[in-house]
Each structure stands twice: as C-alpha cells, then as structure tokens.
Amino acid sequence: MATLISINVQSEDSSKPKGFSPQTVNAQVGDAVFWHNDDQKTQHQPTPDLARPDLWGPPIPGQNSSSQINLGTAGTISYQDALQTGLSGRIVVATPIGIGQPFGGGNAVFSPSPVAIAAGGAVSWTNSDSKPHQPAPKGGPANAWLAQPIQPGQKSPPVFIEFPNENPFVKYQDDLNPSIQGEIHPAPAHRWTFGGSDPVAQDLTGNIDGTISSTATRIEPGPPGQAGGIHLDGSENSKVTFPVPAGQFGTQNFSVALWMRTKEILRYYDIVGNRTAGSHGIFLSLRMTGKHETQPPGQITAEVDQKGQNYIPVNSSKSGYNDGDWHHVAVVRNGALLKLYVDGAPSASGNGSGVANIANGNPFILGRSLVGVEVKFTPVADYGDLRLYNVALTDAQVQLIFKNTI
C-alpha cells in the first residue's frame, strides 16, 4: 500500500533548524512525497537538478502551500532548494524484492536475485507466500535486519545495505528456511545506455549527463541485452563527453565496463578514458590496436598513470577483438592491482608500486581523448552500456554484468 510522506520546510522563525525536515526520508516504490511549506515569508522549490528547477513543479509559496511527487523507481534522490542556497535533502527509495513461489511451484524464492542497489541504498521485501519469512545476512543473527519475520501479505520496512570494501556484495538467506538465499550487489555510480533522441546521454544511476557530438549517432539494437547504443563515425570530434567529476577516481578503487564493436585498423586508438598526454601523465586509458608495427591487431590495453609514478599498463592476453563482433570490456582497480576483463573473463592484470591518483580535471570521453599526438585516434566503432563503479568488482560480478544479470 502506498504511503504519503510529508516533509516540512522550516522557516527561521520555527523552533526547529531552517530547512527540510526530516532531511532524509525512507520510502518505497509507489509512495508519494509532499513538501509542506511552513515558511510564511519565503518561496521554496525542491529539485533534484539545479539546472532544471521545474522538474518537480513550480516554486511553493508560503502560507502552508505544498508540492507533491510520486516515487516510481528505486534509488537515492538527493535534492536541493533551487531558490534558497544551502538547503538540501535526501529521499531513499528502497529496491523492492519479492518473496513467493516460483513459476511451477516449489520452495519460495527471493526475486529478483541477484539484485543491484546504489551505495547507501535500501531494499524492502514483500511476502506473497503463505508462510512467514525473515531475510538476514548469511552468518549474522536472525534479527540483524528485521526484528520480526515478514508475515504473508506484508511488506518489510526499508533495510539499508552496507557493502564491504573487499568483495563488495552481500549474501543473505531466509532465517526461517536457510535454503532460500539471495544476493545484493552494488549498482553503478554512473550508467549510460544512450537511449533517447536529444544530444544528451542520460545518466541512469547518477547525475552526470554526457554530451553526444553531432557526428555520433544512436543505433538500435545495441549490444546483447540492450535496446540501443551509440555509433562513432571516426572523425576527430565523434565522441561522447562526460564532465568532471566523471573519471576523477583519485586513489579510490573503481571499475569501468562497456560494450564495444569495431573493425577499425588504425595503428592505435582510444576506447574510453581521460588521457591527454602522449606519454606519461595523469589518466585512465582504454585503447585498442589496429595495424600496429609491434603489437597484434585488436589487442586491448588498459593503463593508469600519475606522471610516471604508480604506472600500470596491462595488455589483453588475446587479440583480434576488432573483428566486428560485440565484446564486453571491463577494467578494475583494487589498490595497486589493475585487472582487465574481456567478455566476462579475466584477461590480464598488473601491479604497481603504489596507487595512481587519477585527478586530472579532464572530462571522461568515450572515443578520442588524446589530441595532437596522432593524426587520427578515433575509431569507427559502436558502444553500449557504459558503467562506472566506485568499487572494485569481483570476477563473479564482472561475469554477471557480461550476462546482463545485474
């Protein structure tokens, strides 16, 4: 059953601090949130994007007026007041998970499983089975998440999930029937699948939209399991540009994953990254060879660098990936270890003496990022489902992404 959640906008005259109260609210898909303006003197306008303040409606005048939005998708929504500097809030919409009989009968299951949620996100289980169930982390106490079992026909309150730094996923079970098990994984911090019709590559899980150049065009269908993708025609400015802070990983663990299809035979060309230096610099770079004088054609290279310090280059163990077929490519940094994956499987890895601090202020670019060194460095290629994670994915998680499971 949907719930109407109230957020008050407090004035300076209130006994409570000025701003949105409560500052963080927990909700579920289908709920609605409305803001009640208690500030008699000032208009307020909650919005998730200051560049588009009208997304959630016009300003709310004083005199106890209100504004309302419906929550249709799971995730964490950070918002601000477009009219009053410094006022912000957060809505955490729990990812729904069902508990019920699978098609054809049998033991109850958690569905979907595995499931991916945003960092700091929550899940909520709905019990459509005839028996009670109590999800709990494997190895933890039965009441680690829920004080009481979920009765038939009931929905649990939101449960916030914390991912460990190493092996960032959570396995759980029904403590009343431990054979019923599930998995929760981190969703990408940013994801672009290139749907739509305007020159904007919408970020589906974050708030960094990309700019599609005039010589890049959308394609249908896209890579396996995807409705669409993006085509770069090989000209110098054929690219998709994602502004800072995309790609500013610093010294944190990260993962980048995407699909690619090309027959390009250029000597060497960019796939994705923020490299602008012909030699050492500060960057993450993914590249591929064409007709190269020393390397085999269709070999993929991943590099991280900090002006020659903590430099790690890794080359795919196989080549020939410029064969015109779709290939899934992922690079994962875990501390000083850099791993390259192709088509869901580990391909190469390398260790550095330390961790490169990738903070160069450059945009993150799909297509050519290096300009002025080679006459031509942009491939004719198709791309799809570009993802950035703020964690080091495991081998199993890269395989799940390759299979479009998470």
Percentage beta strand: 35-45%
- The total count of strands amounts to 31
| Main sheet specs | 8 strands, antiparallel
Q: Give the termini separation.
A: 27 Å
Morphology call = globular
Tally of separate helices:
1
Radius of gyration: 24 Å
The level of helicity is under 10%
Mean residue pLDDT: 92
Low-confidence stretches: none
Summary tags:
mainly beta; 8-stranded antiparallel beta sheet; 43% strand; globular
Task: Give your account of this protein's structure.
The model has no long low-confidence stretch (mean pLDDT 92). Strands 16, 19, 20, 22, 27, 28, 29 and 31 form an eight-stranded antiparallel sheet that branches. The protein has an eight-stranded antiparallel sheet with strand order 17-18-21-30-23-24-25-26, with no helix packed on it. Strands 3, 5, 7, 8, 9, 11 and 13 form a seven-stranded mixed sheet that branches. It is globular and about 70 Å long. With 406 residues, it is mostly beta strands. The protein contains one helix and 31 strands. The two termini are 27 Å apart.
